Amino acid sequence: MKIKYIYIGTAVILLAIVCVISAFYFKANSADSTNDKRFETLEKEALTANQDLQSKYAYFGADKIPDSLIHLLDSLKINNCLVYRFTQLNCNTCVEMEMPKLKKLAKKTGKDKIILLVSFSSTKELKIISNKYKIDFQMYNIDLDAINYLPIEELNVPYCYIRKEKNIHSVFIPNKALPELSFAYYDRVAESFR
Amino acid sequence: MADRLKGYEKMVNEQQIKMTPVSADNLQEIKIPTGISDSALPLDKIITNVKYIPLETSEHCLVGKIDQLFILKDRIIVVDKMKAEGIYIFDKSGKFIRAIAAKGKGPGEFNTIRDVCVNENAGEILLFDDYSDKVNIYTTDGRFSSYKRVSYYFREFALLKDSTFISYCKEGINEHISSIAKFNLIGSENLQRIVSKSFASSARYIKNKIENSEVLVRTGETVLYSPTFSDTVYEVSSLNQITAKYYLNMGEQNVLRHTTENTSSKEFMGLLNNSKYYHYNGKILETPGFVFLEITNRGKNGVFYSKKDKRICAGSKYNITNLPNVRFFTNPIAVSGSNFISVLNPVEIATSQKLFRSVSSDKERNSYNPVFLEMMDKISENDNPVLMFYSLRN
After folding, report:
1. CATH number of the structural domain B23-392
2. Do residues A140 and A78 lie in contact, with contact meaning Cβ atoms separated by under 8 Å?
3. Domain ranges (residues) in chain A
């Protein structure tokens, strides 16, 4: 009789565990799906708001990193990181709008997961930017044309991507008029680094 | 934007806002000659008493671009609105004293620098932060002392000798106060109590959305006002007295004679790229003996006018002996007594050093002013700008 109760008790506990796990699983999936929907909407908004060349690159794709950039990034000995790229010629406001979001992202991922790849011919100008935004990410200053074979460089706008296993993933051009899109992107970046 | 100031209109008694009369009793004509964009100004022949002040360069005082410059008795105040976003205070030899550059919402902090004016008598620097609807007040040593809320928005402001303020407002930014919404020049006692208005926005200005590079210029005891799309410069002596001071006679080359209210911005810019037309862009400086003006025509042209003999020296570029097209020299941006002050760009100085060495023999180099040679040798491209003080030869 006693053994029968033990079996029933164990079965109830197991069932409860299965229920809890399933609940967590469905909740996570539904959050993912909500995030996906939110992201899809934002992405559509971005694409319809900008019919110019920029919007084509706001699409999330993957691209092979050119060899020279692999060498550069290998020398940093960091894999799986977010690279934010901007130059001296880019719009100041665009960079200014993105910095607080990157700092917020760094709180979730750790600041070593974010790298700034910049091109400034004047070290003074770079120092001014660095002081102004209180930048404490790793920052690498490369020649303006060092990676000009990347088509996105032609656009002359700040952009970011995830560097993972020697590939460029999830290229994204933040749009200062659509901060929600950036937040959604960085949420995904944070998730992918977990 | 004006929504943020809703409620502040209660501080303003609209009945008390009077129209300032504008007179033209002593209008002086400055005749702008043709062909100035093809001319070069012989720098070493027209300027004298040259003094260079390199602004100290250190980690704490990196200046990107000088947007406003104030020369006081014992201080040099440099405003960089966009790049470094700060006010940098130096002594008269260029030694750095303090920076006002803390961004935020706390005491003494700011979000944007819309405009800066200086009250030398009171030893105050006033910074208008239109994002936070306030004016921060600092001492000329850079210490924060207080702030005041504003009841209306403006793009530029200047202090008159009786300690009242004259402000330049753009169409549409003050819709919360209907009686001033369509006026460009607003006078107030303390940036809260508005007492005067003048210069209704012109239709073509509103339509084209073209603005002058500068509108209000403090000069001696008065303020000069150059409305956008105008060839007349007005002097604001007090909130009750505005006088048309200079009429810039550009003849048939005046672009305004070839535009109407229906001319679009694109057409307007097209006309300005045509060497036939001139446009006065609002930049004016005045010393007791001379007036400097900027006339746009395929680029900016510098015009120096002698008040005494009514002669003009103008051109689109500057030359010195054996060194044509001196790119590091730029049009003046401030005055101090009888001196004009130009900002020399260190990157351009560094570029010119190479050119200078290649075109000058030792003998030629020795013929230059040693102060100039010393400045050229000292400056590197990562230094802060150099201020060049000079007066004009009669």
Report:
1. 2.120.10.30
2. no
3. 1-49, 56-193
Residue ranges of the domains in chain B? 23-392
- Closest CA of chain B from A122, distance in Å: 7
- Collect all residues of chain B within an 8 Å Cβ-Cβ radius of residue A133: none
Report the C-alpha gap between A58 and A47 in whole angstroms: 7
A122 interaction partners in chain B (CB closer than 8 Å): 347, 381-382
**Closest chain A C-alpha to B62 CA, distance in angstroms:** 6
Average pLDDT, 10 consecutive residues per value, chain B (394 residues): 62 76 90 87 87 93 95 96 95 97 93 95 95 95 95 93 92 85 91 90 64 81 87 93 94 88 80 86 93 89 93 86 72 94 90 73 72 84 94 88
Interface touch B382/A92, C-beta < 8 Å = no
CB B90 within 8 A of CB B97: yes
Please check whether residue A125 touches B, CB under 8 A.
Answer: yes
A28/B192: higher pLDDT = B192
Work out how many CB contacts closer than 8 A connect A with B: 25
Tell me which H or E stretch contains B92.
Answer: none
Res A181: pLDDT: 87
Task: Give the span between the Cα atoms of B167 and B153, in whole angstroms.
Answer: 9
Domain covering A56-193, topology: Glutaredoxin (3.40.30)
Q: Which residue of A131, A133, A135, A141 to mutate against B (max B Cβ within 10 Å)? A: A131
Nearest-CA neighbor of B150 among B171, B177, B172? B177
pTM for the whole structure = 0.81
